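Read as chain and fold; for instance:
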Amino acid sequence: MKVCISCACSFNAFDWRCPSCEFTPPINKGFPSLAPAERSCADTGFDSEEFRRLAAVEAESFWFQARNKLIIWALQKYFPNAQSLLEIGCGTGFVLSGIKKAYPKLSLYGSELSADGLGLAAQRLPGVPLMQMNALSMPFFNEFDVVGSFDVLEHIESDIDVLKQIYKSVSPGGGVLLTVPQHGFLWSHSDKLAGHFRRYSRPEMRRKLELAGFQVEFATSFVSVLLPILFLQRAIAPVQSNEKAAEALKPNKFVNNALGFTLDMERSTIKAGLSWPAGGSLLVVARRYGY
């Protein structure tokens, strides 16, 4: 169900017009604005230029391609009967476009606090409802089979509050797919430049999900084989601008293909049942069993 951001009435409807108070959310740059006024201008760590940089590298980058493949595998394995999915912080729409291609019958929705990224996402996602929304105040209740958040939580200081919002927005039996940067020893000034509040450990992520009400069903590190390279990169160049970080995600074609092949092999071991204990990133699948 949707929840009116004006009077808090719950209702089922295709559009956002509240049947109780008749409030309709304003439109921001062509998208419904569901962000409460006091949070609508919160700093996301991204600006329009950052979204354009991401859009320029995602489709050809070994890292974004590998992450998409892992997300799509996890979705099929753990939520094979899902009919709806909301991505929080959908950015330029790269993840949703991959899911849409793999599962064309799945009803997809995307949200972003900044409306700047939604314009780029709309180009990749014709027909997919997109909305400006703050993950700290999600106007849904038992609405989606799956909520995805991919490298977003680290940008939000009150991450447990976001997980609680996701919990109430997911229908019983549904769940959440998360990816986050991992390992405190990889923390560098580049994380601060990227707008990160933290890098996660697996126990920390599990604890926070359980505090929100979820039960963790699966967790694995990824970008594990490349962890020594990632560590050396952070040690040699602890301060890296967002422009340089984006360039690093799309090296020359030969290196990009080699790294992509390495992560494909790593993913095959995860699909076979291996949970890697360490890696640059963490994938977690958790389910809501409560009512």
Notes: Residues 38-44 have pLDDT under 50 and may be disordered.
